[in-house]
């Protein structure tokens, strides 16, 4: 289910650009956290070999979180521009669509981002 298209409001486009910038900032911060986690994992491997798998699992979870957060923020930006709503409204739209279709929010967000990229190309 794709939202109806409305003319883009300059304020909404600006808000969408800020959402994308925030997404990039969050990716950067999370990447830094992952680097720190990898260093800690190496240190733990030297000191406590039994904890290595738990740290690997944590790093894998952080990677999934980065991917999920980025695509959701991008989808929110697309919806903000398209629907003329704010960040909360865009997230509510994503949440409702996810629940109505009984799909993960990340999947719905990825579909919206991919559709926007296809239209742009």
Walk me through the structure.
There is one protein chain. The protein is mostly helical. It has one domain (10-120). It is 83% helix and 0% strand. The protein contains 4 helices and no strands. Helix 1 runs antiparallel to helix 2, helix 2 (52-83) crosses helix 3 and helix 2 crosses helix 4 (105-120). It is elongated, with a radius of gyration of 18 Å. 19% of the residues are buried. The mean pLDDT is 83.
Order of helices and strands: HHHH
Q: Give the rounded overall mean pLDDT.
A: 83
- Globally, the shape reads elongated
Helix content: over 70%
Tally of separate helices? 4
**How many whole angstroms does the radius of gyration measure?**
18 Å
User: Main beta sheet: strand number and arrangement?
Assistant: none
* Separation, N- and C-terminal Cα atoms: 21 Å
Q: Kindly state the number of beta strands.
A: 0
Spans of at least 5 consecutive residues whose pLDDT stays below 50 are none
Strand content: under 5%
Integer tally of domains: 1
Class of secondary structure makeup: mainly alpha
Could you give a short description of this structure?
The protein has 121 residues and is mostly helical. It has helices at 10-47, 52-83, 87-101, 105-120.
Give descriptors for this structure.
121 residues, single chain, mainly alpha, 4 helices
